[in-house]
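Backbone-to-sequence.
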């Protein structure tokens, strides 16, 4: 039986390191497979948005993060993939862990990029989060 078409909630974290580089993951799965995205995933029952962002960052990058602030909320609509997500994105900083790719079945690569050297194939959520981060910079 096909699940009903309903919006889902997914939370992301734009992780920024001390060199002001942003962490991106190259997605293997929908939505937007083949594009670079921020870490993130669906909210679990009784989990807060910030808890989700921290958990997903660890699961997808091996890094422990601290949430700084909400950056933006994206209406992530990908009709050709049957995807509809409401996607808050938080700014996060690294506070521990070691960068790795703990979920190679989900991500082709996990790495930091300088803001002036971003890949062109960014997901909608990554583009929106990076733009919000850049608008908030002094």
């Amino acid at each position: 039986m096909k699940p009903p078409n309903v919006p889902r909630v997914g939370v992301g974290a734009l992780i920024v390191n001390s060199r002001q580089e942003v962490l991106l993951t190259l997605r293997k799965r929908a939505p937007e497979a083949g594009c670079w995205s921020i870490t993130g995933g669906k909210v679990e029952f009784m989990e807060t948005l910030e808890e989700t962002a921290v958990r997903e960052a660890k699961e997808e990058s091996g890094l422990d993060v601290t949430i700084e602030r909400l950056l933006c909320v994206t209406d992530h609509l990908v009709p050709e993939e049957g995807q509809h997500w409401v996607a808050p994105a938080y700014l996060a900083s690294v506070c521990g862990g070691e960068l790795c790719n703990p979920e190679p079945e989900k991500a082709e690569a996990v790495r930091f990029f300088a803001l002036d050297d971003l890949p062109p194939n960014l997901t909608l959520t990554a583009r929106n989060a990076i733009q919000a981060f850049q608008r908030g910079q002094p």
